[in-house]
Specification:
Low-confidence stretches: none
Number of domains: 1
CATH superfamily: HUPs
Number of strands: 5
Largest sheet: 5 strands, parallel
Strand content: 15-25%
Order of helices and strands: EHEHHEHEHEH
Length: 150
Amino acid sequence: MITGMTNGVFDILHVGHVRFLEACSQFCDELVVCINSDSSTRALKGSGRPVFGEKDRCAILSALSCVDRVEVFHEQTVAEAMRHIRPCIWFKGSPYTLDTINPMEMDVCKMQGIHVHLIPRVSPLSTTGIIERVIKHAIDSGLVAAPNPA
């Protein structure tokens, strides 16, 4: 059995996430998605994130037919989860390149013989961009007041 693995926050799941996960699943028999815990998401993205908690994100991802298992990791990198899961393939999405992937994670791949497969971006969407558009819409439509410039 070929086990594939990918990781990310996967907050406010959008079509870009879905297309990425569908693409990953084409290269493996089992796809494991590791998501950042709420605390590691805040450390990476700031105090306003995640929008959806880890339990909700797990439930949403688990509902996708292309995802076989979802696990939460609490560290700042997915290296320890990779050591535990021992996938055959680790998927990373654009804009990552082999040169921009976390060196600790690449070391685990080299030590365990994990193949790194880069999946090109199939959608220009990003969760941060979606959040910015929602805030702009709320301000433009008068639902919320624009922040005062400092």
